[in-house]
Amino acid sequence: MSELFDRIDALVASRSVLPQAAERRRLRQAHGLTLDEVASALDVRRATVSGWEAGKTEPRPPERDAYARLLDKLAELYPAAADAPVQDDEPPAGAQPLSTGSAPEVGDMTAAEHTLAPASPPVAAAPTAVTRPRRTTRPTSSSTSGRSGATKAAPAATVASNGDSRFENGPLAVLDVEDGKVVAYCVGGLVLDVPAKSLPSLVEWTLKEARLGAPKLSGPGKDADPLLVLTEAALKRYGLPVALTEEERHAGRIPEGHKVIKQLVRAEWKLTKRGFGPWARIYRPAQGSERACVQLCIPSWNALDSRHWGEAAQLPPADLARVLGVYASRVMTPRGSTAVTGLELMTALHPPTRASEPGADGRRHSEYNPGSLGKDPVDCAPCEAPDGHPLLADLPRFHVRGPAEKLFEEACDWARPMTDAECTLRHLVGIDVNMAFAAGANGLIVGLGAPTHVKAPVFDAKLPGSWLVDLSHVGLSRVKVGKDKWADLEASLLPSPFTPKGEQPQGPAWYATPTVAYAVELGYDVTPIEAWVRYDNGRYLDGWYQRLRDAFLATMADLGVHADLAPADFLAAMNGWRQPDPKLAIVVDAVKATVKGGLGKLRERPRGEGWKPGQPWRALARPTWRPDIRAAVISRTRINLHRKIVKHAAFTGQYPVAVLSDCVVYAADGTSPLDFLPYRDGKPLPGGFKLGINPGLVKWEGTQDVLWGEEVRERFDAPALNLARYIKDGQVTDKDSGE
Questions:
Q1: Residue 643 — φ and ψ, nearest 5°?
Q2: Is 94 exposed, middle or buried (0-12, 13-18, 19+ CB in 10 A)?
Q3: Distance between CA atoms of 16 and 26, rounded to whole angstroms?
Q4: How far apart are CA 75 and CA 515, in angstroms?
Q5: Whole-structure pTM over 0.90, yes or no?
Q6: For residues 598 and 340, what is the distance between their CA atoms, to the nearest angstrom?
Q7: Measuring CA to CA, how many Å separate 196 from each of 193, 202, 206, 225, 365?
Q8: Pair 710, 428: CB distance under 8 Å
Q9: pLDDT tens, residue by residue, 630-659
Q10: Which residue stretches of the chain have pLDDT < 50?
Q11: Fewest CB atoms less than 10 Å from the CB: which of 197, 386, 394, 475?
């Protein structure tokens, strides 16, 4: 009988009555709970709870019963007023700040109310700073005067403090000048008066009074330094140029003799080696565990590159604070370009050192943090070294290394002429893998330490490294597509997975572990000649992937694209996904740029500075200069895509016309991916392409006529012109249209 009763209870729970979506949000906010706290308690994603509160999705068992229980208890504590009027976002003219109630969480509003700030517990403004209510937020409490600098009125938007009173005003502020006074726009709509008259005093104010910054992302790590973004008006106020001269732009900094730098020197502040540029860091040497460092971001000096940040640099101060605040909350406080931030995020999640256990004298010391890359750089293998590396200094000056000397793992760039049968179809449809390189990093085992050279090794798919092996015998005419399951394919219609251009290898070449493992997966034996392997290894990028994935999914969910949408609904949601909030869409672009840029920084090349081939360059001194990790991620990303292409070909008989990095083009009779992707009863082909917003799933990239493709190739006299590069809008340019 107990099993019967359990089934009855489960049936009742599956229909648990829930309040309306707006009431769910009101109850959570009334108790001061964040979306993250509710999601963690119910063991679901933050975006899932957000969807429930927006009325876009409904909870299902077993979460539904628990969610209903939570809301019931909150309803007892915070009953709705019988005749409570619906409040508008903007108070009427002359309205005074309310003295009761909690600030609503930013990020919990509807699309029409979106404020971009990340969800976090409501907090008060810093008691030593003067705040002003903004009309874009709901007022929360009246002023508490009594001394200079007391709180005037706190706006009702949330500040991203993560519950840490040291950073209760959020991670950053955008400084502007209004009515002759400097003001700091913080996240959540908070605005602080800035009393500082000079740049040195601004740094002092930021560290002592502004309460800006963010908590560390990992136990042994460091808190994020406060970030100040200076508008053109703020630059003028503090004696800095609005724009860099051509010479300063090439140098990446203003001259050391500039009057503002002299002011900093007199006040005993220091600049990092990169000087006073678009992303300047002003600091004093740390005293024990106390850090004294402020970072500046100067948009008019091109700190926010439009290729990655869109029109962020042209946004009004409040909007810019909101955009950067979302990015800071979900990724990390920017530390420079998106590429620099992507690399810094790896270190922030895996700090190189930690405090040891107390010794006999009770003292702790710094020791290696397991799972990190350590604090000292390691040499790469000779085959992994890019041209000009000191390891290659003995090579003849004009020597060109071939595949047997150089590891060449890059994204796929391949195309072929269309067959006669494909020319009878009407359309070319492109699909694109979401966050492809982030997905390639997920679960990947990479080396943590230096490589070991091995002669005639036995291949081990779990051992990261670089392998010299001949894969010219691996064909695609007959391949394994599952356990003991083989498929016969038209090899001439497929790119080889072993070269970036899709050509068949002609002899021994260096490959990263995922590439060699794929040859084995396809059903072929491999016999490496030699290898550079890393016995000290781990899943270093897992946390990095997860944080960037969550940032991407949470922001896309805010824009109405959720992870649990059906294929047709997903395609509809992606049609014009930027329109609900173009400013929030900037964050999505920045997150994707952080992925690609961070991986690119793992093999950063010389950047001027009088470098000559054979000499070391600055990036080599970083523990995070790891071309082997970059190669492994690119290898796995390319292989992941090729595996889906093979599965699709084996099941449908359809072959790609072009492949570019993470974009694949197929000929089809219809204009939608659903016209050629083999969905059955709403389910995709196992191991093949699946529509969805999660990293590794695909979205629609663009559709053009088959006649367009033939005309373009004829115009450029290039039968194998890569149409994937232009499929998005049909405009033939040199710009890569991939993510």
A1: -60, -40
A2: exposed
A3: 19
A4: 56
A5: no
A6: 6
A7: 9, 5, 9, 19, 39
A8: no
A9: 999 999 999 999 999 999 999 999 999 999
A10: 82-159, 735-739
A11: 394
